[in-house]
Amino acid sequence: MEFQRVAVIGVPGAGKSTVSRELGEILELTVTHLDALFWQPNWQETPLANWITRQRELVGRTRWLIDGSYNRTLAIRLERSDLVVFLDFSTWRCLWRVGKRWWVYRGQIRPDVAAGCKERIDLEFLRFVWSYRRQKRPMLLEQLRKYSGHTVTLHNPRQVKAFLATLRQGDLARNELTRVEGMERYQ
Predict the structure, then answer these.
(1) DSSP code at position 123
(2) How many CA atoms lie within 13 A of 175 on its CB side?
């Protein structure tokens, strides 16, 4: 497979971390979860200047797979990505998954977040997920329109499963990205 630098983006609860782990295994790429780097203990944010520097370091590598949207710094990843996988799932599905994730990991630290950040759910986060399609998604789509690499947009778990299965079989090359049924491609 030719893809060396992959960004997985989407709504919280869409399954970015799970897809990233599977995709990293298939493509033999080391996966970096941005949530594990951005959040400091007790859910403290990394200052923007430090965050930008850290992402420039990450994308400076030859091969990588980075999981996380973080729209304010998405352009840094898009500049170097040769494939973007956009999980564009419905709000209801994502809210359900966020609730399920909280239930499974409540009071624990998920494997894809920073040490000292116990799983939590609050009204502010639920509002963020609820309003994502209306407020954040348009900005993300605008950035993707300017992106010159390949973008795969998947809308549901069935499409994700088909996409990953196609990759596992080694049937997907750069010029064949539209072969997965229902998958959108920007370019």
Answers:
(1) H
(2) 0
Strand, coil or helix: 3 = coil
d(CA 69, CA 49): 17
CATH number of 148's domain: 3.40.50.300
Q: How far is CA 138 from CA 26, 45, 111, 143, in A?
A: 30, 24, 30, 9
Distance CA 29, CA 21 (A): 9
Domain coverage including residue 89 = 5-186
The one-character DSSP state at 4 is -
Fill in the DSSP letter of residue 111: T
How many folded domains does the chain comprise?
A: 1
Tell me the pLDDT tens digit for each residue of 126-148: 999 999 999 999 999 999 998 98
First and final CA of the chain: distance in angstroms?
20
**Residue 86 CB coordination number (10 Å):** 24
Residue 68's alpha-carbon distances to 42, 100, 112, 168, in angstroms, are: 19, 19, 10, 22
- Prediction pTM value: 0.87
What is the per-residue pLDDT across 77-113, written as a single tens digit (0 to 9) for each?
999 999 999 999 999 999 999 999 889 888 888 888 8
